[in-house]
Backbone:
């Protein structure tokens, strides 16, 4: 049986002292305990925190890197690095390869992953992330909003089970 | 001398009766008159409207298509179709290839282009498009906001001149 | 410690009765026994044979797919499917993500992977595959040529160890 | 009416003194005179020669670049630069966007374009380029072989007219 692959997306410029780092580490850990593979962009900040949490709980981690093994090596908690050499366009691969995803915090790279996930039909849960309002309040199906790391994991697993 | 390339981004499901179509056609026309090349995603809705406006004003139009010439042919106002075969990942190419861009209306594909533009440092002007609020109000440099098609063109040209 | 990732490339239109299928299955098995992760394009033929061989020997298998989980599902021996949605352009990802690779048989997709591997500096071993002659006999560093599946595996592992 | 887009592919490390440079410049010139748009990889060597030849004959030139406008600027004979930021994976875009293509000389990047063209069904003409032999002499439909720049252009135009 194939394991579920859950993405954890977020900015690279978050450090261990930040709340978002702790949230991402907790999310990674919980996902690994539920027997999910954790997929990230393979770099620092949220991507490292989630991979580290998953690794420490015995999980498998994938990193989809923007560059090559020379230009953008994976963080040391990535078991399986995939080097795309295509920059931010790799964000489209991230969302296509997950059963569901969780975005934590976020700058513009994360915003593009949220948008690409919604476009691709990949269920996406936001925790302390972007607030989005389409012009004219059009009724687009939006992201799920979680109020804790635990709720984010629960929402993502439920959505992934329905895929 | 190389002409400036200005992107016009927006959803494919807009029809000629919609205000956004008229805005996109006007933007395309104004850009062509200012001797800019108009770059779009090459499909329908806003992409057709902007290309049509530019073509009718004697401009050159490029379309960066998500599929192949069989699966996703360009609209008939695209002079130079580029077939990427890479789906929404082509949005990353759109923003890298423009001197500046204008987003009109927008669903999630457009939102991803806005985010990728801001990430890549491509100046982007929004007209009747998304309202974005990062969590915690972090001071990210945001998009430019225009209140008319004319202002959108003026802002994009000023930004492109400074590139 | 990160495991070595070895690619196995070859055409999708090979069936179990073909010699190349048996060679690919043997290569996959040997690589898994040497504790390597086996990376393929995730589809049929050589890609299925190599993944099946690796899986049966207890190894981990990755598939880098050209489409989405709907349009191009992975074969059932892929543990970790990565859906790129970018068609043959995904071949460039395959070669960037391997420590070394083995090509078996091959049509034009495989030829592109051989060329992209040589361009990217990924060591590539050919078994019963293309014969390539540059115009004018220019002294380009070429692929390694193996005369058996065993030799192909030995050559790939030696090359990967030197990466 | 849309103009035909013809690709000219070849290595970047060819200089003006080389026969291949002269052949590429001649091919570019002839294509422009026949009212074709010339598409290249946008960099040096054959790509510059073909674009220069086309430009001097009054043609339009497109360059599909591997990087960004900072990392890989287009040569000065490219009218419309498209920046993909995806490295050699952009070769897959080149072949999808042409009605037919001509390869002149060539190292491994060019070989990948030849292979991707044959895979994608883009007619490709070789002049002083690779000699390819599939294992076991399988009857794959191969590239067209020209013995002069003039013949290469004639073959490409005939193939493009049948597309």
Residues:
């Amino acid at each position: 049986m194939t394991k579920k692959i859950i993405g954890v997306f977020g900015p690279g410029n978050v450090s261990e002292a930040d709340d978002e780092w702790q949230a991402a580490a907790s999310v990674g850990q919980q996902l690994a305990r539920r027997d999910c593979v954790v997929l990230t962009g393979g770099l620092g900040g949220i991507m490292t925190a989630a991979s580290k949490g998953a690794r420490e709980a015995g999980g498998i981690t994938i990193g989809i890197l923007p560059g090559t093994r020379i230009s953008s090596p994976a963080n040391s908690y990535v078991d399986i690095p995939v080097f795309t050499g295509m920059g931010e366009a790799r964000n489209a691969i991230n969302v296509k390869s997950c059963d569901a995803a969780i975005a934590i915090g976020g700058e513009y790279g994360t915003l593009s992953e949220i948008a690409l996930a919604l476009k691709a039909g990949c269920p996406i849960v936001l925790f302390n992330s972007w607030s989005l309002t389409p012009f004219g309040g059009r009724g687009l199906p939006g992201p799920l909003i979680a109020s804790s790391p635990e709720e984010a994991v629960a929402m993502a697993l439920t959505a992934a089970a329905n895929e």
Notes: The longest helix of chain C spans residues 19-33. Helices of chain C lie at 19-33, 46-56, 90-96, 108-120, 149-161.
